Amino acid sequence: MVYTPVVRLIKASDRIPTRFNVAVMLFLACLISYMLRVNMSVNILAMVPPIQSKAAIGPASGDTNRTAPVPDVKVPDYGPRYNWSSHDQSIILGAYFYGYLVSSLPAGVCAERFGGRNMVGLSLAFSALLTALTPLAADSGMWATVANRVVLGILGGFLYPALHNLISKWAPPDEKGKFVSALMGGTFGTVVTWPLVGVLIETLGWSFAFYIPAAIAAVAAALWYLMVADSPAAHPRIRADEQEYIEKSLGDTISKSKLLPPVLSLATSLPFLSLLVLHFGNLWGLYFLITAAPKFMNEVLGFNLAKAGFLAAMPYLARSLAAFVFGTIGDHLRKKSILGVTAIRKSFCIFSHIIPGLFLVGLIYIGFDAYVCVAIITLSLGFNGASTMTNLQNSQDLAPNFAGTLYGIINFVGTSSGFISPILVAHFTAERSTMDEWSAVFLIGAAVYIVPAIAFVLFGSGEVQKWNEPAPSNRVADAERERT
Question: What would the mean pLDDT of 276-302 be, rounded to a whole number?
Answer without folding.
Answer: 78
